[in-house]
Amino acid sequence: MTRRSNPPADEIALAATLRELERRTPEARIELGLQRVRTVLDALSPDLAGRRVVTVAGTNGKGSTVSFIEAGLRAAGRRTLAYTSPHLLDFRERFRIDGQSAGAAETRRALQAVERARAATPLTYFEHVTLAALELAAGAGVDDLVLEVGLGGRLDAVNVVDADLAVITSIGLDHQEWLGRTRAKIAREKSGVARPGRPVIVAEPDPPEGMVEHLRSVGAELLAWGEAFDARWTPSGLSVRSGDRRLRALTPGLAGRHQRYNAAAAVVALERLGVDEASIRAGLSAARLTGRFERIGDDPATWADVAHNPAAARALRDTLEARPGRWIAVFAALADKDVAGIARAIAPVIDRWFVAELDGPRAVTAERLVQRLRHAGVSAPLDAVESVPVALERARAECRGDDEVIVFGSFLTAAAACRALRTG
Q: Is residue 206 domain-shared with residue 143, that is, in the same domain?
């Protein structure tokens, strides 16, 4: 077993600050709205003058698109802060300054600055952390902020700052209790990141009814898939058309055929931000993102993907289909997820399932997950297992020849597998 040295004092202090934040406002609590955030932002007053803001909304592909844009800006010599959520293994993953997780001391100082500024104003966990990201950006003197929307767009805390450029990735059915029961309603919420007179890039090839018309009515400069840009895979790599230009033989650093949508949107965004072609090419190739078809182990090859809704599961299926051998799955999901939809999307490529239970208030038992998978039509063998680490151990032991293991269903699932392989 790998032994870790004791964490330094700054990490211990940050952990205590995060425990206190979680005690005051549990991360699972959601309360949409911008008035509280605006009040505290005014009191906090981070100096963001002259810094460009790119906001990325959508159902799936947000983290990948942020990573592509961030890497392209950095290749062009820009100093960046990228803000994403949730994290996989370390809270500081949420704040990348010039491609590296923020330090423990500065992260704690930013969180504490928000705490002082809020006074008696109540904030949710996500609102508090988002304001800390803006404070970190001001303190680090970055040139560009690339911000991933947490939930929706219109009323999400990230939308408290005006985007100089916005990107909307795929639109799918997720978080329906907060965003609406139809793609059209969800799209309306996500479109709230657009601003009059500023570009909004729509990477969804089949936008819901009324979405394009709504963005035009806002007065945003619309750059839509199929009209302003598109992309296709070729033997030499990804080919992206942007207006009258075409960039050929691009090699995105993130795996999966579905990345053409995210990479193409990033190319258009980077062009509008004045990034040269050489930096765009270098940035796309350099992009990395934890938990998106990420290889986390060898002998047998073991991969993790956070896919937690049907659209993400379909994208993952396309990636798995391109590889030989059997796929052995480690799967765990939270109670409010569309397990049946996930199963129908990916079941044709999974030969064996080990189904585990996650911790926390939104957990569901492994036995119940197995029932939901069977009810959805999964015919491959299914075993209910007490935890992700045990499921992972059994899945890896099951592999023969060129079999591979895929871990998916939640950020929590991927994180548990990563920890198990690090310490096992």
A: yes
Query: Which residues have C-beta within 8 Å of that of residue 214, sequence separation ≥ 6?
Result: 187, 188, 191
* Same domain assignment for residues 21 and 157: yes
- Distance, in Å, from the CA atom of 143 to the CA atom of 307, rounded to the nearest integer, reads 32
Of the residues 217, 251, 286, the one at which a domain ends: 286
Is the pLDDT assigned to residue 394 strictly greater than 80?
yes
CATH number of the domain residue 33 falls in: 3.40.1190.10
Helix, strand, coil percent content, the chain, rounded in steps of 5:
45, 20, 40
- Contacts with 87 (C-beta within 8 Å, 6 or more apart), sequence order: 93, 94, 411
Nearest to 348 by CA among 365, 329, 330, 361: 329
125-140 burial, b for 16+ CB within 10 Å, e for fewer? bbbbbbbbbbbbbbbb
Instruction: Provide the pLDDT for residue 2.
Output: 43
State pLDDT tens for residues 36-48: 999 999 999 999 9
Q: Count other Cβ atoms within 10 Å, centred on residue 20.
A: 12
CA atoms of 225 and 238, how far apart (whole Å) = 15
Which range marks the domain in which residue 125 is found?
A: 9-286
* DSSP states of 315-360: HHHHHHHTS-S-EEEEE---TTS-HHHHHHHHGGG-SEEEEE---S
Share of residues in the chain with pLDDT > 90 (%): 79
User: Tell me, what's the pLDDT at 360?
Assistant: 78
- When mean pLDDT is compared across 65-79, 226-240, 359-373, 399-413, the lowest value belongs to 359-373
Peptide bond into 389 cis (omega under 30): no
One-letter amino acid identity for 373?
L
| CATH number, position 350 | 3.90.190.20
Q: Is 212 exposed, middle or buried (0-12, 13-18, 19+ CB in 10 A)?
A: middle
- Give the integer Cα–Cα distance in Å for 88 and 86: 7
Structural domain includes residue 2 = no
